[in-house]
């Protein structure tokens, strides 16, 4: 089989060492004679997995004791509803910073439940400069998307929202750099980029935000249900949690998130430097807002035929999923934690080769 580098935005590449371990343990987990997928979620073996996963993510992100870690289902998209159902309950006002397609989806969902205001309109493709005065002090919460997967922008400064809880969709940059969890009331992320296989959704929520949902909120959509049951109210996505635990161990083994951030910066710099010098391609994003995780790029001349030729050659060379999101076109290289430096280097070398062939 020819080697493949998978630049998918999600589900995305997993660390090769983790996949090898999954393979080795797949049909006989810990001498149980059963696959980890077959274990009861109430068994000692699975309880050890979920407890260890929680301890590891607490350590990696230095999560303070007054936060609960929940392993849920439904994807980040379900959080678009769970957040307002649980938190839009005081003034019934919330502020949403719209920086991309996913934040817009979160906003559209929240609008169903209260008075939701857009902060920093026209900020698709760039991160707005926000101060505490940008926000409604009466709001129940402020929502941001810390990394915009489709557009390729990132918040490098977390806005100060004062006493108003900050809620963040971190689906596409969680665990890529250290963060100060105490700046947030609630963090959520679908697993399928930097955490593990699709199926599990991570929620980190401050204690005081749990248990406020009105009676009418479905049991499964109430954070309290899952907090009380330590994420075992019903059958959790056991396999996804198991692989996530292995990914957390892999991250710890690398040296944690400070080391991961250094590796991510190294990879992203290589690609952005190439694009900034390229005669054919460019990054459409201002330097200060560029994502370390998702790197969209387009033909400088807007030449779609050239982009198609580039993508065709990429596929022949084993570079998978480089096509930009259908809403924006062009190319997008998602270079999450598990993408090795060699993968980005191979892509950069291909860009150089493609340019030389076009120019001759
Ligand atoms: N939020 C962001 C930033 C995303 O990148 C995605 C998926 O790519 C989602 C939300 C939706 O996630 P899910 O498919 O887990 O619902």
UniProtKB/TrEMBL annotation:
Q: This protein is called what?
A: Phosphoserine aminotransferase
N6-(pyridoxal phosphate)lysine modifications at: 193
Q: How is the cofactor bound?
A: Binds 1 pyridoxal phosphate per subunit.
Q: Where in the cell is it found?
A: Cytoplasm
PANTHER family per record = PHOSPHOSERINE AMINOTRANSFERASE
Q: What class of enzyme is it?
A: transferase
Kindly list the positions annotated as binding pyridoxal 5'-phosphate: 76-77, 102, 149, 169, 192, 234-235
Q: What is its EC number?
A: 2.6.1.52
According to the lineage, what is the superkingdom?
Bacteria
Which coenzyme or cofactor does it need?
pyridoxal 5'-phosphate
Query: Taxonomically, what lineage is the organism?
Result: Bacteria, Bacillati, Bacillota, Bacilli, Bacillales
HAMAP family per the UniProt record, alphabetical: SerC_aminotrans_5 (MF_00160)
InterPro entries referenced in this protein's UniProt entry, alphabetically: Aminotrans_V_dom, Aminotrans_V_PyrdxlP_BS, Pser_aminoTfrase, PyrdxlP-dep_Trfase, PyrdxlP-dep_Trfase_major, PyrdxlP-dep_Trfase_small
Q: In which pathway does it act?
A: Amino-acid biosynthesis; L-serine biosynthesis; L-serine from 3-phospho-D-glycerate: step 2/3
Gene Ontology terms, MF aspect: O-phospho-L-serine:2-oxoglutarate aminotransferase activity; pyridoxal phosphate binding
Q: Where does L-glutamate bind?
A: 42
What does this protein's UniProt record list under function?
Catalyzes the reversible conversion of 3-phosphohydroxypyruvate to phosphoserine and of 3-hydroxy-2-oxo-4-phosphonooxybutanoate to phosphohydroxythreonine.
């Amino acid at each position: 089989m020819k080697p493949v580098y998978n630049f998918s935005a999600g589900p995305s590449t997993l660390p090769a060492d983790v996949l090898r371990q999954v393979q080795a343990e797949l049909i006989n987990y810990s001498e149980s004679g059963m696959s980890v997928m077959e274990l009861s979620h109430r068994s000692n073996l699975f309880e050890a997995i979920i407890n260890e996963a929680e301890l590891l993510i607490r350590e990696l992100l230095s999560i303070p004791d007054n936060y609960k870690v929940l392993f849920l289902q439904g994807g980040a998209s379900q959080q678009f509803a769970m957040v307002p159902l649980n938190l839009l309950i005081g003034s019934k006002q919330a502020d949403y910073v719209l920086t991309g397609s996913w934040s817009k989806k979160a906003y559209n969902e929240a609008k169903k439940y209260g008075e939701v205001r857009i902060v920093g309109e026209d900020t698709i493709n760039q991160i707005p400069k926000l101060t505490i005065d940008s926000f409604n002090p009466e709001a129940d919460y402020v929502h941001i998307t810390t990394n915009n997967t489709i557009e390729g922008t990132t918040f490098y400064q977390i806005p100060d929202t004062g006493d108003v809880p900050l809620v963040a969709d971190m689906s596409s940059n969680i665990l890529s750099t250290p963060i100060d969890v105490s700046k947030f009331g609630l963090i959520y992320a679908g697993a399928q980029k930097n955490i593990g296989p699709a199926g599990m959704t991570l929620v980190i929520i401050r204690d005081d935000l749990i248990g406020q949902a009105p009676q009418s909120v479905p049991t499964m959509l109430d954070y309290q249900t899952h907090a009380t049951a330590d994420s075992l109210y019903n059958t959790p996505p056991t396999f996804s949690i198991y692989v996530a635990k292995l990914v957390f161990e892999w991250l710890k083994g690398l040296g944690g998130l400070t080391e991961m951030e250094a590796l991510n910066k190294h990879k992203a710099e290589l690609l952005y430097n190439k694009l900034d010098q390229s005669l054919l391609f460019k990054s459409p994003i201002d330097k200060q807002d560029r994502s370390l995780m998702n790197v969209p790029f387009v033909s400088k001349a807007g030449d779609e035929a050239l982009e198609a030729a580039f993508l065709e050659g990429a596929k022949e060379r084993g570079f998978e999923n480089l096509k930009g999101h259908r809403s924006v076109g062009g190319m997008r290289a998602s270079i999450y934690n598990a993408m090795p430096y060699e993968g980005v280097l191979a892509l950069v070398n291909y860009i150089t080769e493609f340019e030389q062939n076009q120019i001759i």
